[in-house]
Design a protein that fits this description.
Layout: H1 11-53, H2 59-86, H3 93-107
Helix pairs in contact: 1-2
Length: about 110
């Protein structure tokens, strides 16, 4: 069995790392769960506002274009936030220790 001390980490650091990783996984799961609702609201709001406030020939086109851009912006911001948070988990000694534990578990 791999020893935690061989990877340059303490048990407290490992516990804190696992808590941060769990929060990150919960963040990703909540986005997957609520993504459809968020995007539907982000799409419907500009369409409704344009329909109520602006009267013109191309109102529908502008409303749908704006709604599409808002949805794309929301997805882009989420992807940036996820990438920024995931950066912490790359090349981490705790990740190396977890991989060693999993490899040890499979071999035994």
């Amino acid at each position: 069995m791999p020893k935690i001390g061989n990877y340059g980490i303490t048990e407290e650091q490992f516990e804190a790392y696992l808590e941060r990783k769990q929060k990150f996984e919960n963040f990703k799961a909540s986005w997957k769960k609520n993504r459809l609702l968020i995007l539907v609201l982000a799409f419907a709001l500009p369409v409704a506002l344009f329909s109520l406030l602006i009267k013109g020939r191309d109102t529908g086109f502008y409303a749908y274009a704006t709604a599409f851009l808002v949805c794309a912006l929301i997805c882009l911001v989420y992807q940036c936030i996820e990438a920024f948070r995931a950066r912490e988990f790359r090349n981490n000694p705790c990740e190396t220790f977890i991989k060693a534990l999993l490899a040890w578990e499979q071999s035994s």
